[in-house]
Design a protein that fits this description.
It contains four helices and eight strands, in the order ββααβββαβαββ. It is of the alpha+beta class. It has one domain: Gcn5-related N-acetyltransferase (GNAT) (Aminopeptidase, 3-Layer(aba) Sandwich), CATH 3.40.630.30. Strands 1-2-3-4-5-6-8-7 form an eight-stranded mixed sheet, with helices on both faces. A hairpin with a 4-residue loop joins strand 3 and strand 4. Helix 1 packs across helix 2 and helix 3 crosses helix 4. It is globular and about 40 Å long. The structure holds coenzyme A. The site of coenzyme A has 20 residues, from strand 5, helix 3 and helix 4.
Length: about 180
Amino acid sequence: MVTVETERLLVRRPIEADRARFVELFVDPEFMVFGKGALAIAEAERRFNHMVELSRRITYAKQPVIEKATGTIIGYTGVGVCAIDDVARLEWGWRFATSARGRGYATEAAAALLNVAHASDNGEMLCIIAADNALSHRVAEKLGFVTQRQIIWPADQVVTDLLVLRIGLGGEPLLAPSSLGE
Ligand SMILES: CC(C)(COP(=O)(O)OP(=O)(O)OC[C@H]1O[C@@H](n2cnc3c(N)ncnc32)[C@H](O)[C@@H]1OP(=O)(O)O)[C@@H](O)C(=O)NCCC(=O)NCCS
């Protein structure tokens, strides 16, 4: 298992023992703000399953971020899968528990895991952020993502920015492994 370590954090693949914590986070409306909103338990379980499955295929898939000082899972960062213009793209994301926000953790964790992506792949990484999510835009900006275009998100009609970042030597959009949708 690839474990990424920073000064304050560990980032590693999800394991079965993480399930209860992620279900707890996925059903929390504060954790899920600027997204699909709080999930029902069954949906939260499915989302965790998807995280585990994707992390078996991609070393920089969404994975737990653990605060070293407490040993607690405080959020996640890494890629998920998102269909844009009917193309299943790899899309980078981050989401942290309310108690862990405002300490620079999202940027620290994502920058470290992005180094894994840079070492493994060449292409264009996508990031999707609601236009009014200033805190998330700030993280993306610090990591070097640039806004490419704006769309109206079909599911909820939210004004949404599509941002991109060159991974490795850059190139075509990075695509999801076949057979894996969101
Ligand atoms: C968006 C989100 C992930 C940002 O997480 P975060 O860890 O607070 O973000 P950052 O890494 O930018 O840190 C925030 C601030 O912590 C402060 N900070 C405090 N101690 C710090 C330290 N030791 N090092 C760095 N920054 C520190 C900084 O002021 C920093 O902001 P600035 O660099 O713009 O001044 C978080 O608010 C969240 O989970 N939101 C809800 C879910 C969401 O919107 N997800 C994204 C959907 S697109």
